[in-house]
Design brief:
Blueprint lengths: L12 H19 L3 H9 L6 H14 L2 H25 L4 H25 L16 E9 L2 E8 L1 H4 L2 H33 L4 H13 L3 H14 L7 H14 L3 H15 L8 H16 L3 H12 L11 H9 L8 H25 L11 H9 L6 E4 L2 E4 L6 H16 L8 H17 L5 H11 L6 H13 L4 H10 L9 H8 L28 E2 L4 H8 L3
Antiparallel strand pairs: 1-2, 3-4, 4-5
Helix pairs in contact: 1-2, 4-7, 4-15, 5-7, 7-8, 7-9, 10-13, 11-12, 15-17, 16-23, 17-18, 18-19, 19-20, 20-22
Amino acid sequence: VFRQFKLEARAGENDIMTDLISALKKVDKEAGDDLGAFMKKSKEIMEPTLADKAWHIWYMSILSGGSTQIKNIGGNLAQMVGEVAVQGLTNPRGFRTAMAGLMTGLREGTGEFKRIMREGDASKFEERGLKPIRFTLGAERETRPFVKVVKTTTAGMLNAFDYVGRFMSAVDAEFRAGFKGMELKASAREAAIKEGLQGDKLQRRIQELTDEPLQELIEQSDQFAARGTYTQKPTGLLGLMVEAINRVTTSGAKEKLEASESVRALKEKRFEDVKIGAIGKVAIKGVARTIVPFSRIVANVINNSIDWTPVGFFREGLPAKGLQAIFGGKREMSRPQRQQLGRAVIGTAAMMYAASLAMEGRLSGNGPSNADKRQQLKDSGWRPNSVKFGDRWYPYQNWGPPAIGLTLVGNYFDSTKYGNFAEDEINKRFVAATMGSVNSILDMSFLSGMSDLSTAIQNYDRGGERYAKRYISQQITSPVPNLFKQTARYFDATQFETDSVGEYIRSNLRITGGLKLRLNVFGEPISGEKLTNLSPVKETDDPVIKFLAANEL
């Protein structure tokens, strides 16, 4: 279309145009060629309300911590490494072509990274369907008798929060372009081979399909890229759960507008226009949203990780394809099916290796449920959900796809080592491993509220009151950006005895004057990790501490 009008299409704009056309086709399909329906959909991209702006600040505060940013980059990178391995296993002849597409995509993604940092975009953790949020401050002043003018200035400090989301979105865009380039190039090669081409003709056709891809290739590469950055629409049972959670925690456009108009009417003392029910409904959903803030991302992390376990053999229609092969039906697998088979094979092999490490005591799950025993182990250098290489324990929770497989294996063996299950009670051990792995998934910097709830249930023998207090204190201090709290903890990771909500709050904010130091069994101060679930820890050389830990004394 652009060529017809002799308009210049610069580097990177082709992708933008194809994405736009794809989106318009979807809207057209949903709208059924009805202009009224199209306009209705466009109106759903609404002006942000005061509540939306408050949520924006809250999200950015939670996500501003360095640990969260590192985990986001690490998760995308681990996904990319995994998919490169799958490509090498399932299509070794096309590996070189796929890597060329990956490098091209990453180069194009750099431009998108810069654009987003400059212009802004919502992160994958935020709610879509809103116009960009900008904070302004207005002050009324009288310029002439009876004439008031509102002078508006930019609220720079509040708008600085936007760079948290911009950076996360820009990182995702960089990786998404890499994933898309890899998949587009590899699938273009397969399409060209099916046309019976070889040699120079094959290479020219691959380039043609890459420069002007078919709609089928565009959709396939888009889905692959979304999966790589955990931004796809959740599917299966977890997808249904996310939809149910979103109905409870997310207010629709109509609800937001009613609540916003009611608040405005309340301010203007137009009490007849106030809808208390609308305000209450949005408020209740807001409280629920603080407990489960990022359900879609968590569902995608779990779904993607399950693909790398033996369960992956039962996804993407692989069992049906296997039966067709056995009974002489069509045997050719689709590209997504071959990729899924590769993930299941690699992930299962990794779990088998992890099992050998766990039997040697070099792979851990959550460890003992008793907090004192866990601390005794930590004093020795041991860490939960970690793998030991040499004399150091490395947390594996942020290794992307393999994480759930590793934590399942670790908790399976921990159920015998620290639980009350015999080695032949396989079913009970598997259930214990699955339940223990839930806490590992939730134990992320942006899901600490859910993690505390899970930990309280696990530590029922010690009472869940302290975890409830910790959760309350975290909600109270949530407006303070995690960037400040985590930076302070990085320079002073000392742990303190915190029995009241006030003490928890002071510890979170690192206002520690007057707080009692938390001591180990030798009366020595306990120091936490500077970067939670990221820092490797060296095992102690102290024979006494090692003996106590090994014998759970």
